[in-house]
Amino acid sequence: MKTRRIILISVQICCFLVIIYSAYKIKINLKEYRTGEAAYSDLENKVNEVSKDELESQINYSLETQEDNKVEKFNFEQLQEINPEIIGWIKSKDGSINYPITQGDDNSFYLTHLYDGTENSAGCIFLDCRNDSTFSDKNSIIYGHNMNNGSMFASLLNYKEEKYFFDNNELYIVTPEKNYVVKVFSCYDSDIRSNSWDMNFNTDTVYENWLHEIRNKSLWKNDISPKFEDKIVTLSTCNNNSWDNRFVVHGILSEN
Q: Which of 49, 132, 186, 223 stands the most exposed, by the fewest C-beta atoms within 10 Å?
C-alpha cells in the first residue's frame, strides 16, 4: 500500500509540473505573439509616416489596390536602414497579409526572427534564399508561419474556402524596383517531398508540365491559366494536418 501511495503521489506531482510548464510555455508564446504583432504594427506606421517632400524624393513605388483605390507607399531606404535584407513588401487583397519580405543567407534564420533580426517565434515573411531577389526566377517561393493568432501567413488557409479563393484572387508585391500583382490560380495541401517548390526547369516543356500539374492539384479552378512565359510566385505555410504537410498558393506574377 505504501509503495502504491508513493507512486500515486509521484504521478500527481509529475502531472502538476507538466501543467505548470505548459502554462509557462503558453504565457511565453502569448508574449512573443504580442511582441511580434506590436513590432509589425510599429513598422507599418513608420514606413507610412513620411512627409510629402520625402514621398516625392525617397519613395520608390506605390501600391494601389483596385478594390478601394487606396495607395500604400513604402520607403525602402528607411526599411533597408532597419534591415538591408528587407527586399520587398507583400499585401493580400483583404489586408490580412501586410508584411515586409526579407531574404537571408539560408531558409532558417527568419523562421525564428522578426524583420529587424530580433529573435521571436513569429518569424518573418521571407523569400527562399535560392531565389533572385528581383523575382526574375520561374518560381519565386515565399514562406511564412501559420500563426495561431491569425498573423503572418495563417490567412492563406482561407483559400481552402471556395468563396475566399474567388474573392481574393490577387496579392500585391512591391520591391524597390517594381510593383507586382500576383494572380492566384491554385491552392492545395502538399507533402514537403512533392515538386510544389521546384525552381529549376531544364526546358520549356518541363516547365509547362509543372504548371499544368500544379494547376490541376488546385482545390478550386478559375479562369487564370499560366503559360510557359509566365513567372510564378508560390506562397507556402505550415498546414494543420501534419508536420510534413504544407499549404501552398500559386499565382502568376506580373508587373502592376
A: 223
